[in-house]
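assembly run, all chains below
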Amino acid sequence: MTYSYLNRRVHLYLGLALLPWFFMYGISSVPFAHSQFFDQRDAAKGLPLWTVRAEHSVDVPVPGNAAGLRALGAALLKHAGVDTANFGAYRQSPTQINVYAYSFWKSTQLKYFTDQKKLTVEDRRFRWDHFLTGMHARGGFEQEGLLQRSWSVVVDLVCVAMIVWIGSGLYMWWELPGQRRWGWAAILAGSISFLFFTLRL
Amino acid sequence: MTPRRLTYSPADRTLVVERMQSRPNAFLERFHRRRGYATGYTLDTVWAVSVDAFIVAMVVWVLSGLWMWWEMKVTRPLGLAALLGGAGVFAMYLLTL
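ok done. output:
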């Protein structure tokens, strides 16, 4: 087996195996790049994005550190009957704690108003653009579950794969002497444009 | 390259100009998140168009890559295994996460 053969096969099979992620990152970049268009289109429907599902009276102490805040988030989710392993807890203001629970398909937000001892539970209406951007932006290392963290490991793998595709793609191009002239033109044009944007923007 | 933050306080009529400390990870993240259509500046819009071109290129790479793979008959069995394996894992995440 030659290095050239190995390079081509790694490029091919890595690409095929991670194709859903590559495709997802490409398609989901559209709603990120054109968020105003999608927001305006959705606003024209005149539907609220968040709907209040329930309100509870809750009296719990609010911790000062991040770890305590996450524990409080878990307790509030349990109190509200929201079963999820994916969430983040944030201090929205001095008197408000927000807990954002999410899956790829649905999102629920808890708002705990510390001065009123009130907890509201809101569900977000499904939007395809949010579904795609949510998948694109999803991490997972901050979560406790194995499945949640494994998604992040795959995302890391996709990052490495992209670097490998670049390297193996360059090697394959260099092996085709007939394509070198046009290849150089493309690489230089792209690099100069990128450098120009980097320095000017 | 070096973002600045301007804070104007109307009460005492002061303007504070701060320069962000240079950090490679913040630099890369700004690249990743940068849009451009909303600013109204031509150069920003050109950047946004280049981002759109890259999105189209990603989809073209996916489809052309599939086409090139299918043309190499010898790689079809292993390629199909890789494709189905990846799609299966992706579907599993889609249904459970």
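The first helix of chain B runs from residue 24 to 33.

Residues 81 and 87 of chain B are 10 Å apart (CA to CA).

not gonna interpret more than that til we talk
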